[in-house]
Design goal:
The complex is a heterodimer of chains A (588) and B (239).
Chain A (H helix, E strand, L loop, with lengths): L3 E10 L3 H11 L5 E5 L15 E2 L10 H11 L6 H21 L13 E8 L6 E6 L5 H15 L3 E4 L1 E8 L6 E8 L5 E11 L20 H8 L4 E2 L4 E8 L9 H4 L3 E3 L7 H4 L9 H13 L4 E3 L2 E7 L5 H7 L1 H10 L9 E10 L3 E2 L5 E5 L5 E9 L4 E2 L11 H20 L10 H16 L6 H15 L3 E2 L1 H19 L12 H25 L8 E2 L7 H4 L1 E6 L4 E6 L18
Parallel strand pairs in A: 1-2, 1-9, 2-6, 9-18, 16-19, 20-21
Antiparallel strand pairs in A: 3-5, 4-5, 7-8, 8-9, 10-22, 11-15, 12-14, 13-14, 14-15, 17-18, 22-23
Helix pairs in contact in A: 1-4, 1-11, 2-3, 3-11, 5-15, 9-10, 13-14, 13-15, 14-15
Chain B lengths: L4 E10 L9 E10 L6 H11 L18 E4 L2 E4 L12 E4 L6 E3 L2 E2 L2 H9 L19 H5 L18 H5 L6 H12 L7 H7 L14 H5 L6 H16 L1
Parallel strand pairs in B: 1-5
Antiparallel strand pairs in B: 1-2, 3-4, 3-5, 6-7
Helix pairs in contact in B: 2-5, 5-8
The chains are: A alpha/beta (588), B alpha+beta (239).
Chain lengths: 588, 239
Amino acid sequence: MTLATYTFDAIIIGAGGAGMRAALALAESGAQVALVSKVFPTRSHTVSAQGGITCALGNVHEDDWRWHMYDTVKGSDYIGDQDSIEYMCKVGPQVVYELEHMGLPFSRLDDGRIYQRPFGGQSKDFGGDQAARTCAAADRTGHALLHTLYQRNLAEKTNVFSEWFAVDLVKAADGLGFAGVIAINIESGETAFLHARAIIFATGGAGRIYQSTTNALINTGDGIGMALRAGLPVQDIEMWQFHPTGIAGAGVLVTEGCRGEGGYLINKNGERFMERYAPHAKDLASRDVVARAISLELRAGNGYDLNGVSCVKLKLDHLGADLINSRLPGIRELSLTFAGVDPIREPIPVVPTCHYMMGGIPTNRFGQVITVDSKGQDQVIEGLYAVGECACVSVHGANRLGGNSLLDLVVFGRAAGLDVKEKIRDLPLRSVGKAELDAAMSRLNRWDNNREGESVSQIRFEMQKAMQEDFGVFRTGEHMQEGLNKLVQLQERLKHAAFSDHSRVFNTSRIEALELDNLMATALATAHSALYRTESRGAHSREDFPKRDDANWLTHTVYYAQDHRMSRRAVNMKPLHVKPFEPKERVY
Amino acid sequence: MSEAMRTVKFKIYRFNPETDIKPSMKDYELTIPDNQDMMLLEAILRIKALDDSLAFRRSCREGVCGSDGMNINGRNGLACVTLLSSLKQPIELRPLPGLPVIRDLIVDMKAFFKQYEKVKPYLVNNDPLPAKERLQSPAERKKLDGLYECILCACCSTSCPSFWWNPEKFVGPAGLLQAYRFIADSRDTSKVERLEALADPFSVFRCRGVMNCVEVCPKGLNPTRAIGHIRSELLAEGN
């Protein structure tokens, strides 16, 4: 069988906010670009983002990108790379104005400028009063952003490979770098080799490693799996954000913007308990802080009982119907649908829910993928890029601030696109041999040839259960080791799993099987990295190592799938335009 | 302790072009706890765990991505925001009507997206770019509410008889809602061109006001009203 080959200057894998922004940066370059997505672009998970995109426009009070930078470094618990954070916060206003010029329907202030709301972890003047820095389109900012980017891509006539699934990277014959990816046209079931000078991963998160998550069903860590199988590392992958307010039972996200607009959390005694945990910022403390506070309240028996599920409640009714209907209409809709509760009248039952992967494929601030050589030095992989949630650039470190995710997507999607645009003439189209193609096809061939075995859904269920039980908000070495043991067994079982439907046309079982490999790779990486980091920092909260340990752990963790090798990589503390922010105790 | 269980019955449209000459309805039963309700999508995911050959699209599972539009007991809707308890059994699931079926509940949406693209669904403004944002008053911005929230699920257009009969010529409710979203945007400078492009007898005027689109929209949007606004603007232009 000969493999169909399509050749481009650049391919972008993933059409969420990061991938589509990268495509736009390349649109005017004259380069041949393919935007490859396993779902139609507006079905990507960016669509679910609610509260907004943070940057220092200064529309409601005096503001400064350096204050935003300070908050982000502090929020990261000091393992965010300060050169990347500086770049993101400094260029942020420009990329948000660009989105506005593209047509994004931002909510407006009375003077006609973009509306900005308070979000968690935001301060004026380096830790002073609460800031209002998150630009919003009501509580549908992700939807508005994703559709605007898709619409711009339509205007620019971007070549979209919609409903194509990327299977694996293809190594170059010379052993240096990568020549493209193997991908499946889901509708026809045909496999093809997409050959390109530059490859940009924008594959999003992997929240589906957990049982309860705000993430879409498509968030299966496809870029993480592909990178690990290609011998590339992932960084800080133990850092998983639990959003304080997922709807109890359903897992559906309720934006932090609710608390930004004046909502607050209560326990079963009606107490506004965040006042005890974060006397200054209260309900707008960082997400890791609020998620831990809720978990402690539940552990202390202060939760409401909702059909056997313990939860706290998010109170909004005091804000009034007008504000809820104008600023939080989507939340009202979700709450009515998934909790049967109208927030105009009653509080919404919520629990901390897996939300965001801070770790990912390590990159520099141009989005170029980095690996670490035997001497511990960074090595850039020419022609390979990663942006958005699948990347670890690293602007979020150990804990992401709300509203910084959409900013990360557009800032670094754009940066990677611009970098590729500049270098495209110099990047070689690397040749491949049969051996490289066979290697990249091997996983697909294994699944296609497995005719009998355990079902994909059973193994996926057990993996999600293990992650939920042993790698949650609070972690201990003992439980994590048990969890890792379960994952190792599950990975072995996965090798012998099978799906029964071997037809070609729109075979979603085949795609789900390939996705499970990626989920399992991400889960294992998480488990090894979480056991490796023997301290508590940001979202990684270990009861057996409750303190932050800067002497040993002010560092990135780096994981390779081969032999599950762990190492470290220095955090960048060298911003270009400001003095570095030195680690200090993190209080809100 | 054993929970009381109940059985939920389904009839699901099945068609695999590789093996089937024609489509058929297949019966499924799902056993779930008596006191448990769930979204239809969750039920379909459980059915797929039992029969992995069943194909359907899904992504966000919360009604914002527009993947899982289907015909549920004769009415178009999103499986992920439809409660099982709201449905009469056996629950009949079919692909969205009026579009070619690729497989099972998956339709070919090319004709739908083509109409969306036809209205040039992107902001056009050839004025020099300001250094900051273009200003828009809250009142001007309010005109976009009820328009920009569309998720392109196609529930509306595939429930519209005019779209069934003229999928090539009638833009359909989803496309027209987006056409009006840009006509109504104070920042857009191509209103005249946009209206001209819709001035033929088919693009807009095939709407017969049946209002199926309003009835089925899972986001509670009102394409018929938007179409009415476009008609008024066109008639005003014509005078």
